[in-house]
Amino acid sequence: MRRTRFESIGRYTPETVRSTAELVAGLGVPGITDLELLTGVENRRVCASGPDGDESSFDLAVRAIEDCLRHSDYTAAELDIIVSGSIIRTRRRGIHCGAPPFALMLRNAIGAHRARCLDVSNACAGMITGVLVLDRMIKAGVVRNGLVVSGEQLSPAAETAVREISTRTDPQFAALTLGDAGVAVVMDDRGDDDDEIHHVELMTLAEGAELCLGMPSNRSNGIALYTDTRTMQSDAHYRQGLDRLATVAASTGQGRSGANFDFCIYHQFSEPAIDHLHEMAGQRFGAPVPTSLKVLRDYGNTGSTSHFLVLHEHLRQQRIPKGSKLLMFAQASGIVGGGLAATVSRLEA
Questions:
Q1: What is the pLDDT of residue 331?
Q2: How many helices (H) and strands (E) does the chain have?
Q3: Regions of the chain with pLDDT less than 50
Q4: Are 330 and 337 in contact (CB under 8 A)?
Q5: Which of 229, 216, 56, 64 is nearest to 130 (CA)?
Q6: Which residues are within 8 A (CB) of 338 and not within 5 positions of it... i.e. 6 or more apart?
Q7: Which of 22, 41, 138, 233 has a Cα-to-Cα distance from 109 of 20 to 30 A?
Q8: What angle do CA 95, 101, 103 make, to 5 degrees?
Q9: Whole-number average pLDDT of the chain
Q10: What is the pLDDT of residue 284?
Q11: Per-residue confidence (pLDDT) for residue 162, from 0 to 100
Q12: What is the pTM of this model?
């Protein structure tokens, strides 16, 4: 069977920084001063907006691809497929594109004219879903390589939340953690013992599908994120995802123990919640789970890009030695759970 690997990674984060203190100052609800303590988010990056031009999801994705290809042995013309996993698909501020597919527009923008195109939509598990699809396509011999990308301009949902939140229990409260980022990875069929995607698996619990939604605001113009926090914090849902991940890990020879890995990465939505999930994972695997890597404090929740933004940032800071084994835990509204296990040696940022 063909062995897949991450061949290169790239990212783009906007230059503009918005602090949690600045965001909270705009709220119409008095007394909310502990958001940073509750979430662990101190700052987030937001797309540029002004007379010199607006940044969009599309711009974030293109610049992430360009950075990724600078670190790749492949040119755009050599890519077999582009998979886009963005939640928000803006071409200009306020202009959302349902069609044509985002992947097709990205392909044309970078000159990857022979590449097939595919959009996937799976909330904050969008990029991991793209990796899963491409992993299966490579192993089936349909393609030899491909690129998975997401550009997330989520800050407008935070702006909507600032305008509309009226109580501390408002379902848009979680939107205050959102930030903007673009990330891209190239994958191919040249995996070996030093570089390999060992397994990637996702499971959807359909009974929660209506409880965590991103949609046009029902109170004003703009995009809003509505979250049922009771569902997102459900230990039962997370345990089901862990059970599935442990079963798959055992079936692929990775064992059931989190001790087999050097680092783990969670979806970056709340530091206390991540710490709780980390503890639960250790209980499920019956062994200490490795060091949890985070970027929450500086970048917030960047949606479907969050796992790979963590990976890129810690590679950039040279905190992930070559040959490290990584375990990514996916959590997304829907509700989606699962994970991705990989050994990485070639990746540089």
A1: 84
A2: 11, 16
A3: 209-213, 231-233, 255-256
A4: yes
A5: 64
A6: 125, 128, 200, 201, 202, 203, 241, 244, 245, 329, 330
A7: 138
A8: 105
A9: 87
A10: 77
A11: 93
A12: 0.92
Question: What would the two tokens of residue 211 be?
Answer: 């409880």
Q: Rounded to an integer, what distance in angstroms lies between the CA atom of residue 208 and that of residue 334?
A: 6
CA distance 291 to 12: 25
3-state secondary structure of 330: strand
Distance CA 68, CA 64 (A): 6
- Which residue bears the tokens 């909310």? 32
Residue 258 pLDDT:
53
Residue 210: predicted pLDDT: 46
pLDDT of residue 285: 77
Query: Could you identify the residue written with the tokens 């829907």?
Result: 334
Could you give the count of Cα atoms lying within 13 Å of 9 in the half-sphere of its Cβ? 22
The C-alpha atoms of residue 272 and residue 296 are separated, in whole angstroms, by: 11
| Residue 77 burial (CB count, 10 A) | 11
Return the CA Rg of the chain: 19
How many whole angstroms separate alpha carbon 336 and alpha carbon 346?
A: 29
For 273, the token pair is 């919640």
Q: In sequence order, what are the residues at sequence separation of 6 or more whose Cβ sits closer than 8 angstroms to the Cβ of residue 276?
A: none
Q: Residue 55 in 3-state DSSP? A: coil
pLDDT value at position 211? 45
The 10s digit of each residue's pLDDT in 230-251 is 544 456 666 766 776 666 566 5
Q: Residue 57 in contact with residue 86, Cβ under 8 Å?
A: yes
| Nearest 10 degrees: Cα torsion 225, 231, 234, 238 | -60
Q: How far, CA to CA in Å, does 230 sit from each of 169, 235, 258, 315?
A: 11, 10, 27, 34
Tell me 259's DSSP state: G
